[in-house]
User: Fold this.
Amino acid sequence: MVELPEGAYSIRLSKDAPLFRLDYRIDVLTTKRISRPICVWLPASTWQIVGMLSEVTEKQAGEIIDEPFFDNLVALQSAIEAAGFIFSTDECPNQFCENGKIDIGYGEFTNCKICDESRVLSRERCLLLRKI
Assistant:
């Protein structure tokens, strides 16, 4: 999974033996609009673009995870969370966490360790890739 910057377009995979790279463009606003190419090197393997995470279907999720479950989208989200990513502090798996804070009593709060140690991603900007 790769989180793209806002406004990324012209997304494609390129093979640059023996590695793959993900190429995309973003517009840089200066006095005039300039398109800037970006390249992300991927680990050695053969890769395929599945789609944007926010648009992944149940069937596509089932093709990505190792062992299909009753609800493949939930299994995919669990795998992403297990890798140390969350989509917002509202979705923190810690039941006592509220917006990244834990109430420790007497009006005192502490930061949620899971939220502090996890990287918050945007579903709409995450591109899902799979090894083939």
About this structure: Residues 72-82 form the longest helix (11 residues). Residues 2-131 form one domain. The two ends are 14 Å apart (CA to CA).
